[in-house]
């Protein structure tokens, strides 16, 4: 377990290039272009290689829910496979809780996946001949944990994901949403510290998907787990994320909180993602508040985590700046009602 100062996940100058002699070609391209990633990637493409992940660097904080999103082909799934070492990276540094996994031995990787890393993918990968209980308990069986102990732990996690009473059912007897819950439970049974989820809900019907998103947030609230979640759905990203990384053509274009992505997109690509998003439902008060100064008038006060819609409703009649308070009731800033209106303004297109 790492200390709070150590990133749960850290990657630096990460590249994943597909094609013949990829590593040598990348080294040559970077040397030729003074480590200019865009120029190096262009040279690689001209030679018929595919730079699926290009010079990516970021940290994920312990306990953070970090969403990576982008269109199909943007590199998001390749990136998460590099972070989890399902793919050997072409170049760059990947560390999990300070440990360099890019150079970890096969034996160490097996140990990490058994005891520290959980993974869930779009396709559930359940064993059709095993019951729900045995599917969930399987990772503990691989670790050599006794039957009674592993089944007791599996029952706890099955209850956590809302499948209590279905322990004896087989995958063929379950709905798509229930099978996905089994996959989530199986990835959690080993008390993983870092959890990778690659579009886990994208194959589900919209109603079931929204229900699982809500349940996922409830599960997350009970865990002390760092989560990397892949999606192509901006609404899902905004609903779940602490921070979002948006990818295009193998590059990370912007990293920010949901409020920052919605209110301050860095370019037209990100702006297009957020174009149809209801800003007031996703942007938070702390994204537009200013430092408190002077004596604030008596009247309504806001919480820093409120949505802009809720804040505007609370202070619609105010003619002066309104106090913003933290969870303990202390004033942490102020908002002028006019700033809320400005932040929610949508330009005509």
Automatic annotation (TrEMBL):
Pfam family, one: ABC_tran
BP-aspect Gene Ontology terms: response to osmotic stress
Enzyme type, top EC level: translocase
InterPro entries found in the cross-reference section: AAA+_ATPase, ABC_osmolyte_uptake_ATP-bind, ABC_transporter-like_ATP-bd, ABC_transporter-like_CS, P-loop_NTPase
SUPFAM superfamilies, sorted: P-loop containing nucleoside triphosphate hydrolases
Gene3D superfamilies, A to Z: P-loop containing nucleotide triphosphate hydrolases
Record keywords, A-Z: ATP-binding, Nucleotide-binding, Transport
Domain of life: Bacteria
SMART domains attached to this UniProt entry: AAA
Catalysed conversion reaction: a quaternary ammonium(out) + ATP + H2O = a quaternary ammonium(in) + ADP + phosphate + H(+)
Single annotated GO MF: ATP hydrolysis activity
Domain ABC transporter: start-end pairs: 34-274
Methyltransferase keyword on record: no
EC number from the UniProt entry: 7.6.2.9
Tagged with keyword ATP-binding: yes
Family stated for the protein in its record: Belongs to the ABC transporter superfamily.
Subunit structure: The complex is probably composed of two ATP-binding proteins (TmoW), two transmembrane proteins (TmoV) and a solute-binding protein (TmoX).
UniProt protein name: Trimethylamine N-oxide transport system ATP-binding protein TmoW
Species classification: Bacteria, Pseudomonadati, Pseudomonadota, Alphaproteobacteria, Rhodobacterales
């Amino acid at each position: 377990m790492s200390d709070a100062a150590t990133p749960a996940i850290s990657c630096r100058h990460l590249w994943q290039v597909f094609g013949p002699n990829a590593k040598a070609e990348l080294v040559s391209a970077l040397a030729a272009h003074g480590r200019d990633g865009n120029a190096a990637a262009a040279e690689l493409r001209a030679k018929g290689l595919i730079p699926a992940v290009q010079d990516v660097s970021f940290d994920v904080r312990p306990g953070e829910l970090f969403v990576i999103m982008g269109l199909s082909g943007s590199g998001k799934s390749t990136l998460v496979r590099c972070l989890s070492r399902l793919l050997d990276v072409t170049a760059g540094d990947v560390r999990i809780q300070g440990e360099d996994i890019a150079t970890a031995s096969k034996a160490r990787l097996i140990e990490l996946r058994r005891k520290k890393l959980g993974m869930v993918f779009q396709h559930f990968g359940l064993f059709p001949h095993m019951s729900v209980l045995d599917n969930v308990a399987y990772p503990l069986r691989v670790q050599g944990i006794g039957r009674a102990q592993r089944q007791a732990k599996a029952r706890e996690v099955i209850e956590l994901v809302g499948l209590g009473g279905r322990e004896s059912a087989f995958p063929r007897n379950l709905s798509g949403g229930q099978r996905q819950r089994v996959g989530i439970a199986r990835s959690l049974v080993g008390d993983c510290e870092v959890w990778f989820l690659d579009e886990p809900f994208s194959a589900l019907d919209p109603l079931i998907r929204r229900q699982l998103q809500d349940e996922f947030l409830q599960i997350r609230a009970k865990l002390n787990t760092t989560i990397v979640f892949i999606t192509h759905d901006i609404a899902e990203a905004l609903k779940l994320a602490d921070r979002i990384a948006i990818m295009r053509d193998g590059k990370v274009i912007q990293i920010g909180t949901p409020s920052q992505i919605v209110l301050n997109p860095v370019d037209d690509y990100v702006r297009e993602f957020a174009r149809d998003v209801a800003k007031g439902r996703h942007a938070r008060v702390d994204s537009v508040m200013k430092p408190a100064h002077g004596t604030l008038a008596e009247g309504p006060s806001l919480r820093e985590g409120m949505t802009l819609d809720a804040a505007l409703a609370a202070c619609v009649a105010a003619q002066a700046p309104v106090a913003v308070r933290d969870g303990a009731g202390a004033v942490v800033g102020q908002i002028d009602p006019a700033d809320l209106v400005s932040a929610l303004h949508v330009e005509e297109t």
